[in-house]
Design a protein that fits this description.
The protein has 250 residues and is mainly α. 58% of the residues lie in helices and 2% in strands.
Length: 250
């Protein structure tokens, strides 16, 4: 009888030891996963300041490389692009770019109420800085989770990078062609056979008009919608001179 009791007691202790080991292993697993998640979330905030001088690649570019698809990009500084291109992109994509802090709450409200000048074209509520944050660190598509990560990242980018550099990055990572043409230089060469510095105002507006979907829209063979948007953006650029002043401030 004593032997049986001792055996039961030993069995209970072994069971408790195993339970304790299992709980300890679970805690280590949870801690490791939490550490990895926190590191993943913080990494963009650590990396972003280095983009003052480093030319980044976007997640769509990385995806195409990883899946064996074509990627063409020639990085050029802003002063090697026609001035009409960044000016037109700002007017079309983010009219408050020079003044906002990475997000534009007014644009969010407007996006819920109306499309772009009643011609069926809505740019949505994302600022240029938000699009840079998404293209550099997040994933395409629409989700509350992605938007929740994108907004603070956009604010951080505005804090650590000059406006001129943010737009320069955007113009060099935006997709501007149907077969992996990324950046203004590749887009201009594909559409018009010229470098980005030689674009005229109409060509800059045509490139801007295809930014939402360069696979279905073409600056090389513009559709009626692209032509409508081109005319709209040319008029806007002529009507609002100086809206790109933050790019050239001394």
């Amino acid at each position: 009888m004593v032997f049986a009791v001792q055996r039961d007691h030993a069995t209970d202790k072994e069971w408790q030891r195993r339970q304790g080991a299992s709980r300890s292993a679970l805690r280590r697993l949870v801690t490791t996963c939490a550490t990895i998640l926190v590191a993943f979330l913080l990494a963009p905030y650590v990396i972003a300041p280095f983009y003052r001088s480093i030319d980044p690649v976007s997640t769509p570019m990385l995806w195409r490389w990883a899946t064996g698809q074509r990627v063409e990009r020639i990085v050029v500084p802003l002063n090697h692009m026609a001035r009409s291109l960044p000016a037109t992109v700002i007017l079309a994509e983010d009219g408050t770019f020079c003044h906002n802090r990475g997000i534009d709450l007014g644009a969010i409200r407007e996006a819920l109420e109306q499309s772009d000048d009643d011609i069926g074209e809505s740019r949505g509520a994302s600022t240029i800085t938000q699009q840079v944050a998404k293209n550099l660190f997040l994933w395409p598509g629409h989700s509350i989770v992605r938007k929740a990560l994108e907004i603070p990242l956009a604010i951080w980018l505005t804090m650590v990078l000059p406006k001129r550099r943010i737009l320069e990055i955007y113009l060099n990572i935006a997709e501007w062609g149907p077969d992996g043409e990324f950046g203004a230089e590749a887009g201009a060469r594909w559409a018009f056979g010229i470098p980005a510095r030689d674009l005229n105002a109409v060509q800059a507006a045509e490139l801007t008009a295809i930014l939402p979907n360069p696979v279905e829209r073409s600056a090389r063979n513009p559709s009626p919608l692209v032509r409508q948007l081109t005319a709209l953006y040319v008029r806007r650029a002529a009507s609002y001179p100086g809206h790109d002043s933050c790019l050239y401030a001394r």
